Amino acid sequence: MPQDNPTTTEDITLPPGQQLVAPGKWPVIGETQPAHTNEPWTLKITGQVQNSITWDLDQLRNLPQTRMNIDIHCVTRWSKLGSNFSGVPLQEIIDAAQPTSDARYISFISRSAKHHSTSLVLDQAIKQKTLIALDYEAQPLPLGHGGPIRNIVPGRYFYKSVKWLEQIELLSEDRLGMWEAESGYHNHADPWREERYMSPTIDKRTAAELIRSKNFSGRDLRSIDASDRKLDQLNAAAALLRDARFQNTSLVQANFEQANLSNAHFVNANLNGANFRNADVEGTDFSGADLRGADFTGASLIGASFANFLTETLATMDASTKLPDNVIAPLFPEQLAFVKQQLGQA
């Protein structure tokens, strides 16, 4: 597997842009419970197969089981190493269903309120040794982490491992899943190549017009490049700004309330007095940013960074920065220690 510019934490090699969560922690991302929780749980395989089959949980547990030790890499820049899952190898499910000659893709479909799904090339899913997981660390897979059934795809960002799996469909043509179609996550999702996002949602001309207007409110502007600008008092309330670039940009008193800024880049930005209340800033990089007076009340900071210790690019904070204890609690250990020191809580 290629390792393009990996980062290293002590003697551990991680994919680029990833950091380790605290020992024993496994952040819960997205929805916390499935839909229709009172219905008996089954897993069915349909589509381009000769045998459409439905298994209940007991029947799944009676199929050949295997245990896998895998590293979890979330697209929001956190990694959890050495996780033990056990369950049914996908190959067993595929063999039982007997794919037709037209079966080239596989879709994993969730019993969730948002109807999550994701797809892979069928041969790649088998090559990656995808597991239909039932247990985690020798216990039934917790509901918040996708139990009772979750597909686990080693070597891919974890959004390819769907919580609350209830259907597998073999397809002749690819069908993008929810995260890929609605959030723009990369369809291949190789963490070692940092395949986080697909192409931006808007062209450069439209982006330039929006930047001049300083009004991003409610817009879907994934991967917009607004770096090296003066955008003080930008209105970006409730905007979808995943993977947006704001490096070296002046954003004094900008409004990002309820915006989705996952994996956005604010390196060396001036965010004095900016509003991030109830914003999704998971995986966002604030290294070197001026955050005096910024308000993060209610924000989700899982995977966010405030300091790049390799380059000594450190955010500026003081007592006027609103970062409540419950908001900073999920930060990486080194990031949490840095933030507390800056806020005078060390």
| Tally of helical segments | 7
Between the first and last Cα atoms, what is the distance in angstroms?
Answer: 40 Å
How does the helix and strand content classify structurally? Answer: alpha+beta
DSSP strand tally: 15
Shape: globular
Rg over alpha carbons = 21 Å
Question: Which bin fits the share of residues in helices?
Answer: 10-25%
Taken as a percent bin, the fraction of beta residues is 15-25%
Order of helices and strands: EEEEEHEEHEEHEEEEHHEEHH
Q: Outline the low-pLDDT stretches.
A: 1-9
Q: For the report, how would you describe the main beta sheet?
A: 6 strands, mixed
Q: Average pLDDT, to the nearest integer?
A: 93
Tell me about this structure.
This protein has 346 residues and is α+β, with helices and mostly antiparallel strands. It has helices at 57-62, 90-97, 122-127, 178-183, 204-213, 325-328, 333-342; strands spanning 7-9, 12-14, 19-20, 42-47, 53-56, 66-73, 78-89, 105-110, 117-121, 131-136, 139-140, 150-152, 165-171, 307-308, 313-314. Strands 3, 6, 7, 10, 11 and 12 form a six-stranded mixed β-sheet that branches. A five-stranded mixed β-sheet has the order 5-4-13-8-9. The chain has a two-stranded antiparallel ribbon with strand order 1-2. Strand 8 and strand 9 form a beta hairpin.
